[in-house]
Amino acid sequence: MVVERKKKVSDETIMEDDMNFSINNDEELDHLEDDQFDLNFNNLKTVFLYFINRFRFHYIVEYSNIHKLCTCLLSLFELKKQNWALFDEQEKSDGEMSEKELDEMEKKLRKKKKKRALIEFRCKVEEAIIGNYLLGKPKPKEHHKEISLWGVPLLPSKGHEGTDVLLQKFLKAQRYKVSDAFDMLKNTLKWRKEYKADEILEEKLGGDLQNLVGFLEGKDREGHPLWFHANAALRDREMYQRTFGTDEKCEEFLRWMVQNMEKGIQRLRFEKGGVDSIVQITDLKNSPGPAMKEFRSVSKKALLLIQDHYPELVYKNIVINAPFWYYARHILRSKIISHKTKAKFIFAHQSKVSKTLLKFIAPEQLPVRYGGLKRDDDDEFSPADKTSELTVKGNFAGTIEFPAPETGVTIVWDVTVAGWDVVYKEEFLPEDEGSYRIQLQNQKKMGESLRNSFYINEPGKIVITIENPTFNSKKTVYYRSKVKPTVPMYILFNK
Fold first, then answer.
1. What is the pTM of this model?
2. Phi, psi of 292 (to 5 degrees)
């Protein structure tokens, strides 16, 4: 249906090819204004006329889509009615509401505003896809009704659970400004088409950089995938030259970073209550300095790409082992990134790395190099083997005991401490008072995750003592153990 507006001095006419109707004065619309909350589907023509007059634009839409259009309008009117009810309630109780009640009222209003923005955004996206202009001016006979993003269809009327989740990410990134969110979505789809982002997972990128500079491994305490990016290997002059030697190499490195981002998104679940963002951890220990302009330029481009085309897909950006020059550069770079992006950054000095990471990541999911208990090709434990916790107050000592009532077995244990800086000791205490204590680990200052094992040839227990020499700082100890049957070596040799 093609709708054409013609303005006259004393009347206003809306012409249409299939149905001929007009408004000779504003009485009908005035009535609609006064009673707009009582609209229903028995008056579709009036609703549609109101829509055209209200928003003042030329609109092309199929007759079969009027019903969807009116559905969106009625939802908006219902939200507006609820908002007025909230304002009336506030006016009636003005001066009588407590601070807590005012906060609750403000939360309700914000929630209604977000819901209304989502409905408006849904309508706008639906219109753009049906009108075939979401990806720009279409070519003749070209259709884009099956547009999807990260495997989620964007057409709201399809009813996919992930559609609203994705649309809300664009809204949140633009402070629930529908027009800005719509422009961001269009730009993202256009960029993905030009950059061929949907095909990037099939490309062989990274080469020597895989598992050395960037890798996806583990989850945080809330289930967000972890994307580690360690730059120490790039300090090697030969490696740096192979990676950033030409403009083409720089572009390939950037494309590899985008590929890692896409791999992380494959692990997300765009559904209500699902994990729909990742945690990025950047390790700057022995990282190339500020003089390496190619590395600095690519890092800046990657940050802006994620900000502009991956809205709200990075839950946190934890930067560890950051040198002084990085803090200065981050302050300067803050001028070109959004406030929301800046708020996601968390910095951890070298002495606070394990404490910071263990705050967000369970030790069984965190690699050993960062103070966790996860080891490559581990035959003893898996991430499913959960840890226990022990808190040691300042200037106190705590003990961990692993009972060993049976003989002929081996006890294996892992221990790590958030923040290190403790004194650690291990020993075996036999049940028989006539037997000797066996010291397994003499007192030492703990600065890394530890694993040890001991074969039990008489009943007793393993006792681990952890002393906290600091006065006003608590230390959290994470540990786990397992018992496995073992055949002594001398029996094997005798056979």
1. 0.76
2. -80, 85
